[in-house]
Design brief:
This protein has 22 helices and 10 strands. It is α+β, with helices and mostly antiparallel strands and about 775 residues long. Strands 2-5-1-6 form a 4-stranded antiparallel sheet, with helices on both faces. A 4-stranded antiparallel sheet has the order 8-9-7-10, with helices on both faces. Strands 3-4 form a two-stranded antiparallel ribbon.
């Protein structure tokens, strides 16, 4: 150890020059960093869910779209509103990556020719708007509200809200930057139409993707400097030394700059989770640096010269800081088993950062201290027996006096709060990733309130034979399913398929809104409809080329993913009872099935972190009996904070799922510092009381200060409009505070019981 520190001091100038130079050179790569907000980032290339979705798109085209919604309280059927719809419809047709546009004006209206009752016409519902009189508009309104194909789809029942839907091309979802390009054009169109006085709402894939990106970029640009500023202020309050502030902050800046630069070099794009790495690294790096600087100051105040204080600091901190960095890395690395790609990337990158932060801390801070030779006033205040402070002695006496009360109170609190676990729900609904005041979330609420369900299930029904979708029995079964599905689940608001087209033709020709029994008649209806449609409005997105598979789109309300999974299971089971089969597809289904991945991430990452860190503790203390003592103060905060979530009605989402392993990884740091210092005190021959006082003096206060900084850093995320970050920050901050209290109260109380039974149990 002494040789290592001597080398640090000898090569101090090289270290403090080379590390910043390496950082500056690598940071040049950050100008090439890119942000990806696409839905595809949540799934690996080998994901069966993604492969199934891609197969769906190859058959039916894209289910994704750009949606523009607006409302006229006096009714949409006036010339101003219709002109807005018409202009936006035309503009969307001319927009890159948009394959089809559906709106009130270009709705393909099927009706009889007024001059020839045997002639069926299919044309745009509204044309030559300026030529329409008030009576004409009212007539159009009455017709529209009888059209099942558009009511509760592109126009509300009260005819006051409408939406224009631009269906995206299949390649739009796979093209990086497509959403940004689409939104650039859409925002330009909206700006041009704002003179109408309408408030426009936007939804659809491009809106979600750009919202993910904008919120992620906002968070990293806002919270990273904010957390650095908060940390600097707190470090100044703690140390009252500008050197302590700058050295600590420089370590974390070096660390996250290098890690992000390497991520960019290796081709990884930032996303809403990995964009938070700087804040995580700030929290990790500050913890190690604070412990080092704290012990250094204590040494200088005790009268040690600069080099002696550096030796004392490294001797006391090298092992515990290495172990805490290792366990923190294990906590983050355990996220690497997740099937959710952003979580996996975040976990592995931050695990590497934890190790890098340790290396930079051990190298840079002692080298810088050797150069700075900070002036510290030697403390003349008398201390208690064996050099231990008065506060530390009072703390030890308090624990010994109240150990039974502490254990009992913890048990009662645990039982009460843990009961909240019974109220927990898992939810991975992508809409709820955003706060209510985010524009996209507002649009979803407007659509659900005034039009239809803003989510959708793409149900692919297999008729089992070529041309099978034209079979009357098959179509009647589809119609029966739609009715039973909506009756069973009120959250199913609207269904749409070629069945509606056939029923419409039969209504126009035979005055009977039902499926005809004649297979040939059904085929004629579909052929006539297909031939009459303008270019771009074809029906090939509703069936496959063999006319065996039928696509039925169900518009759904926003619900918990548990409810989504229940409805999806019901759909597929319903069709198993028929001669046909069905498979639910689409992005809603994809995110619903992420629920299992969320649960697996939470459970498996915590279990992995527990196993690995338990093995580490066994190798350190060489006693199996130490493992329960080590695990209790670290598992308890996770259970308690999740129990609190159950009581408060906060669902487990992706943000909470990643918090478990991270809480464990970081909270273990305090336990390690506590136990290592306790073992060190016992080796010095201290009794139990003085050992606790020694722990408080040389680790306890630093634990309090680091937890204060860490919890402040994480609670900042509560300000995020991205709910995964907001929930993660809140849960992690609360858990770290609970973990500190458990380490400083319950852990020593349990230690006292073990110590009374076997005074050599930790030796």
């Amino acid at each position: 150890m002494k040789k290592f520190v001597d080398l640090l001091i000898k090569f101090r100038w090289y270290i403090v020059i080379v590390i910043p130079l390496i950082t500056i050179v690598l940071s040049y790569q950050l100008k090439y960093a890119q942000f990806d907000g696409s839905y595809r980032i949540w799934f690996g290339k080998d994901s069966k869910t993604l492969q199934q979705y891609d197969a769906f798109k190859n058959t039916f085209g894209n289910d994704d779209s750009i949606i523009i919604v607006f409302r006229d309280n006096n009714g949409i059927f006036n010339k101003k509103a219709l002109h807005v719809i018409e202009r936006l419809t035309e503009k969307l047709w001319q927009t890159k990556y948009i394959a089809r546009v559906d709106s009130l004006t270009n709705y393909q209206y099927v009706h009889k020719n007024p001059q020839d009752a045997d002639d069926i016409l299919i044309d745009n519902f509204i044309e030559d708007i300026d030529a329409l009189h008030v009576k004409d508009l009212q007539k159009k309104k009455k017709i529209a509200l009888r059209e099942d194909l558009i009511v509760n789809r592109i126009i509300s029942k009260d005819a006051k809200t409408t939406m224009i839907v631009g269906r995206l091309t299949p390649k739009a979802g796979n093209t990086f930057g497509a959403s940004k390009h689409i939104m650039h054009d859409i925002n330009k169109y909206i700006k041009e139409e704002q003179k109408s006085g309408y408030k426009f709402y936007l939804a659809g894939g491009p809106v979600v993707n750009t919202t993910f990106s904008s919120l992620g970029q906002y968070d990293v640009k806002t919270f990273t400097p904010l957390v650095i500023l908060i940390a600097m202020v707190m470090l100044w309050v703690i140390f009252r030394k500008i050197s302590g502030v700058l050295l600590t902050i420089l370590v974390v800046i070096f660390t996250f700059s290098i890690v992000l630069a390497l991520q960019t070099i290796f081709g990884y794009k930032l996303n809403n989770f990995t964009a938070n790495m700087p804040v995580f690294i700030i929290a990790i790096g500050i913890a190690d640096a604070m412990h080092l600087f704290w012990i250094y100051l204590l040494g200088r105040k005790a009268g040690l010269d600069n080099y002696a204080a550096i030796h004392d600091t490294i001797e006391k901190n090298l092992v515990p800081t290495f172990l805490t960095s290792l366990t923190t890395a294990v906590g983050f690395a355990s996220l690497g088993i997740s099937d959710i790609v952003p979580i996996k990337t975040l976990g592995l990158a931050t695990a590497n950062a934890a190790i890098l932060a340790f290396i930079l801390t051990i190298l840079f801070i002692p080298a810088a201290l050797a150069i700075l030779n900070i002036k510290v006033k030697v403390s003349k205040k008398p201390t208690s027996q064996q050099g231990l402070g008065d506060f530390a002695k009072k703390y030890a006496k308090f624990i010994i006096k109240n150990d039974n009360k502490i254990i009992l109170a913890t048990l009662v609190l645990f039982c009460f709060i843990a009961f909240g676990l019974t109220n927990l729900k898992v939810d991975s609904n992508a809409v709820r990733y955003f706060r209510e005041d985010v524009p996209f979330r507002q649009t979803v609420n407007v659509i659900q309130k005034n039009l239809t369900g803003p989510m959708s299930y793409e149900i692919v029904i297999d008729s089992k034979k070529t041309d099978g979708i034209k079979n009357a029995l098959f179509m009647k079964t589809v119609d029966k399913f739609s009715k039973e599905f909506k009756a069973k689940f009120p959250d199913a608001r609207h269904t749409s398929s070629l069945v509606d087209v056939v029923k419409k033709f039969n209504e126009v020709i035979d005055a009977n809104k039902s499926i005809p029994d004649n297979n040939n008649l059904i085929a004629q209806y579909l052929l006539l409809y297909s031939l009459s449609l303008p270019q771009g409005m074809e029906i090939n997105d509703k069936m496959d080329v063999d006319e065996r598979l039928l696509r039925l789109t169900a518009s759904m309300n926003v619900v918990d993913t548990s409810k989504d999974l229940q409805m999806i299971e019901w759909i597929e089971e319903w069709w198993k009872k028929t001669p046909y089969s069905a498979q639910v597809n689409g992005q809603t289904q994809m995110f619903a099935h992420m629920q299992a991945d969320v649960t697996d991430t939470l459970i498996e990452s915590i279990l992995l972190a527990i196993v690995v860190t338990s093995l580490l503790m066994f190798f350190i203390f060489k006693k199996l009996r130490m493992i329960p003592l080590f695990l209790i103060p670290n598992i308890l905060p996770i259970i308690l904070v999740i129990g609190v979530m159950g009581w408060l009605g906060i669902n487990i989402d992706l943000g909470v799922a990643i918090s478990g392993a991270i809480i464990l990884g970081i909270a273990i740091d305090d336990t390690i510092h506590f136990l290592v210092k306790y073992k060190e005190a016992r080796k010095k021959g201290f009794n139990f009381e003085n050992s606790l006082a020694y722990v408080m003096q040389y680790a306890g206060l630093a634990m309090v200060l680091t937890t204060l900084v860490l919890s402040t850093a994480f609670i900042v995320f509560r300000l995020s409009q991205f709910m995964l970050n907001a929930n993660f920050g809140l849960i992690t901050a609360i858990a770290l505070i609970i973990a500190l209290l458990v380490d400083l109260l319950l852990l020593p109380a349990l230690l006292g019981k073990l110590d009374a039974q076997d005074k050599s149990f930790l030796e």
